[in-house]
Every structure is written in C-alpha cells, then in structure tokens.
Amino acid sequence: MEQKKQSLRQKFRIYKPFTVCRIQEQLAYKWSFYLFIFSSLFCVFVVYYLWKAIYNSSSSATINGFTLNEMIVYIFMSFITSNLVRVGVTRDIGNEVVEGTIAMNLIKPIHYQTRLFFSSLGNLLFRFLVPGIPVWLILTICQYQTAGQLPPSPFTILLYLLSAILSFGIMFLFDFCFGLLAFYTTYIWGLNLAKQAVLSFLTGQLIPLAFFPTSVQKIFEFLPFASMNYTPVMIYLNKMPGERVFFSMGVQLVWLVILYLVAHGLWKRVTKRITILGG
C-alpha cells in the first residue's frame, strides 16, 4: 500500500508540470483567451435573447418543462460546463502530427496519454477559476435580484461538480480517440471543427435534449453525448429525481470505462502503425 502511494506521488510530481505549464500558457496568451471568452459569451447572449423571444411569443409560461428563468440558468450553466469539460486533445495531437514532434514525444520516458490528460487538467483548473466562478457568481446574483431565486443546495452543487468531473473524463477520452484520426488523415483541423459543431448540438449545449422527441431522448440517455454536458446541467437545475441522478451518473461511469478501453485499444493500433511507417 505504501509503495502504491509513493508511486502515485512520484507520477504526480512527474506530470504536474504539464498542468502548471498549460495554466501558464493560458496566462501568457491572456488576450487570446479573453477574445475566446468574449466570442463565447456573445454566442451565449445570442442564444439567451433567442429563447427570451420564444418565451415572450409563447402562450405558455412553461415550454417542455422549462420556465424562462430555468432556461436562462440552463443557458449559462451549459456555457460554464462546456467550458470546464472542453479539452484540446484533438488539436494537440493534430499539431504534433503536422509538425512532426509526435515522434520525439513518443520516445520520451513519459506516458503520452497521461501527459495529455494533465495538460487538459490545466485547462480545467484555469477555466474553473476564469470564467467559471465569475460567471456563476454573476448569474446567481442576477437570479436572486430579478427572480428571488436562491442557488441550489450545497449537496446539489456537489453532485453537479462530481458529474462535471465525469463529463471531463468522458470528453477527454472521446477527444483522444478522435484525435488519433490525425495519424491516418494527417490534417485534422476541418474534422475537429465539424466535431465541435456536432457535439454542441448532441450534448444539449445549444438546445436542451428535453426538447427532442421522447424516442430520441431515450436513445440519448444511453449515448455518451448527454453525459458530456446535459447531465451535470440538469442535476444543477434539480430537473432529475434522486434515483435518476444516480442512474445518469452511473451511465457516465460506464461510458468512462468503455471509452478508456476503446482509447487503449486504438492507441495500441496507432503505435503499431507508427512503427511500420518508421521502418
């Protein structure tokens, strides 16, 4: 047991600099990051005013189980969650393949996938602090002042954070598997843009999955896409009964295991391909 603890501490010391480096990178290129946040918030407010117009023109105060206030919370919490779990693994792998640095990174005495994970963890920590907490605080204050609505209970927030962590793991493994296409296509920039557009729709980032037909919702329940964004946001909104929360988090755990096994198998095939191409 003591040896395992020492091994974990040693691994953490080895890979922690990659997390710190990614945070420093975000700080070094802060104007680029601020531009990204501004453009993202601009899109969020476009969606906000769109839904506000829909509710104002509707004869019912509730649409598919969402009031206007709940939809506003959904929009902004979806923005926070999607930023937290977003990883740039596909971009990183694609850049290394194009630049040819992938070969040097593979022969280094570090685990390639673990290195990418700790780098992505740096993104998670930075985006939790900026813009995660500030946007959440502003949202909470505005909701209280305009609608007298208090934030969820600490237990609900804890469940949301746990679900968001599982979403991060699922997104990382999915992005890693997708990024391995770069070994076959070489240039993956266009495919990555298409993937992001499709995911923003399938994960419920643009439209809550509750607005889809019931048959489609049942299919999405067992696919990994809802687990990437929709599940933690619905937990935060208290839109899931108690047993439903644990069922959805169980689905997240199952997909985490499945994607880990898929990523492991694909990585073995890719490394064999590299060996063959390298002579």
Protein described:
The protein is mainly alpha-helical. It has one domain. Helix content is 81%, strand content 1%. The chain has 13 helices and 2 strands. The protein has a two-stranded antiparallel ribbon with strand order 1-2. The longest helix is centred in the middle third of the chain and has 36 residues, at 112-147. It is globular. Residues 275-279 have low confidence and may be disordered.
Q: What do the pLDDT scores average to?
A: 87
Beta-strand content bin: under 5%
Structural classification: mainly alpha
Largest β-sheet summary: 2 strands, antiparallel
Task: Specify Rg, calculated over alpha carbons.
Answer: 20 Å
Low-confidence stretches: 275-279
Order of helices and strands: HHEEHHHHHHHHHHH
State the separation between the terminal residues, measured CA to CA.
42 Å
C-alpha geometry: globular
Oligomeric form: single chain
Strand order of the largest sheet: 1-2
Domain count, please report it.
1
The tally of strands reads 2
* Total number of helices: 13
In which range does the helix fraction lie? over 70%
